[in-house]
Amino acid sequence: MNQDYIKPDNWSIIEEGFDKDRVKSSESLFSIGNGAMGQRANFEENYSGETFQGSYIAGIYYPDKTKVGWWKNGYPKYFAKVLNAPNWIGIDIEINGEILDLNTCKEVTKFKRELNMKEGIYYRSFHAVLQNGTEIEAKITRFLSLDLDELGVINYQITALNKNSTIIFKPYLDAGVTNEDANWEEKFWEPSDVNYSENKAFVTARTFKTHFVATTFMQNSILLNNKNLNLSPSNVFSDKEKVQFTYEVAVSKGETTTIQKFAGYTVSLNHENTELGAKNVLEKAILFGFSKLVQNQITAWAKIWEMSDITIDGDVKAQQGIRFNIFQLNQTYLGKDSRLNIGPKGFTGEKYGGSTYWDTEAYCIPFYMATKDQQVARNLLTYRYNQLDKAIENAKDNLGFKNGAALYPMVTMNGEECHNEWEITHEEIHRNGAIAFAIFNYHRFTGDYSYIPEKGLEVLIGIARFWHQRASYSTNRNQYMILGVTGPNEYENNVNNNFYTNYIAKWCLDYTYDQIQKVFLEYPLDHKRITEKVKITEAELQDWKKVSQNMYFPFSKEHDVYLQQDGFLDKDLVPVKDLDKSQRPINQKWSWDRVLRSPYIKQADTLQGFYFFEDHFTTEQLEKHFNFYEPFTVHESSLSPCVHSIQAAKLNKIDMAYTFYLRTSRLDLDDYNKEVEEGCHITSMAGTWMSIVEGFGGMRVKNDALHFEPKIPKEWKGYSFKINFRNQIVKVSVNHHETNFSLEGDNAISVFVNGNKVLVEPDKMVTV
Questions:
Q1: Which residues of the chain have pLDDT under 50?
Q2: How would you classify the pairing of strands 705-708 and 749-753?
Q3: Which residue among 166, 219, 493, 760 has its CA within the 20 to 30 Å range from the CA of 291?
Q4: How does pLDDT run across 51-70, given as a tens digit for each residue?
Q5: Global pTM?
Q6: Is 490 among the catalytic positions?
Q7: What sign for the dihedral angle of Cα 492, 497, 500, 505?
Q8: Residues 6+ apart with CB under 8 A from 20
């Protein structure tokens, strides 16, 4: 049974009614972010019930010492993680001598949360009866500014409903925070300075080990019936890690008092003097004032939605699902800074350490390429180029590889591997292939080849050298094999000849060889610079060719399919539909040994290869492989339903594609995996976007042109999306009778619809 308390709405995530058991789930679902920082939807006021406090700053991390029971050579010493940052949202509130705490109130009614995705603003309201009999109404507005991305804004208003009241606001900054997921329960922040004057306060702290400096700041204003009282704090508490102001307001029955808190973080990544930076941010914020900041926020989000929105007509849950996914992706990463990347939980939780996985290259880059300008995707590629030296070090130190072979980490913050499960860290090497594929995909989509001679070719050579050294020659088969790996399906470890891994390895070797030839012909100066730097020879290239041309792929003549790996057919091939429902999810019900011996597939594995390299196979081959593997897939990875949705749509299995789409788009809203309280699945949300654009829209890029094969689920009346293709914005609208194309750009563009060429001219709609 999935949760269903989120009210269906086209533009908002809405919760009505206060339920203590839902608090942690809602803290994840109502999270806010602006690319530079983010936070879970914790209450500003004191809450003594179960809660998971979390505020995070992009790019600020800590190498937490690895905790494993049995140390193996090559384990990374540290697991880097995004830190729970100092708390700036806190406002303790006393009403007639009693602390406001929804966990201890006599009664809480009319409780409502709304995350307005159109505006990028989080609203909360409730009526409460305190133990002392005082009745109040509270209305809270909170957002993280997109314009001033170091600033957060809170407007917290309280109306006295049944009696004259003394209301005390006690806003604070607190650097004495810990991480929910700390391995050794140690603190990560060392406060160095606490300053305050008038209504402003600053707490500066430095991370241990990594020595990032952050100043957490606030400025408070107190209003009565919307008039600024120009109050100064009646009391200030401060110690080495916390500062708290006290403001006391006499409120007559029916009157409303408000605290406006402007606060946030300035960090040493962007400022030499973080406190000075904080003062500058506050100066700008005060100049704007609350109303103008709200207006700017609505305008900034309107601009994002203008390009990235997908509309679905006639299916509110599907519409809410896709907008929630697009909203969270934009809250997590806006592409302004090539030092940053996309963590699987974004700013909504701490699982996976907020680090970078292969998800970015395999799932996120297509979304950012098509909904932003190409510089954003290029920044994501540059992130990996900047970490090439560390990837070479990783292959050398952990695998003994030579000659500049590069193994990119499974999980990273700064290029060092920080994932500590051996069978994934050292065996899930297919991630190297995804990084090369992203370079190919970027060029295919944007037409911008310049990245390859400037930076990408060095990355490709390091990856190709890795595959060349990782392949073993089998005298028995007279072919090259890749032994001891974990494919995308993590429910099988240490297997031999995973089809997807072998296929992407062969492709990487061939693709890199071709790019070296192309750069030699078209960019001779770059070719000379790179070949001298990496010392590549013709003999080495011929060795690559030998491996690629003689790569082994396990194949079953009986089923006429490539096998996921050697020995797959030796398993007890019971399809998922015949599994007792009480045994699901198997990762929570079965021992790991039982999972590993089963045929069950966590996410697309062989089918991941068919997704990336669709044009290498016929539709008949895809159908054969889909029909063979899908029945064994348990979809217990957030990355699973999207690939299956795209392929089901390609194969005209539209009902199945729709079911997978709903699962990927509402994975968190409906809490399919019973874990949303740990945070949302941000990187898989890009897969939801792909399910519509590449799945139902059938969008592909072939020979420098956009191709579409539009389809529509029976549950929808219509849908539309936009694609920024080479600085021309193509809008696609599909209904049950026709597909309409329009163009925002200067020059006409040819697209192909079901194989037929269609000319789309600026400001003219074309109907197919």
A1: none
A2: parallel
A3: 166
A4: 999 999 999 988 777 666 66
A5: 0.95
A6: yes
A7: positive
A8: 49, 50, 103
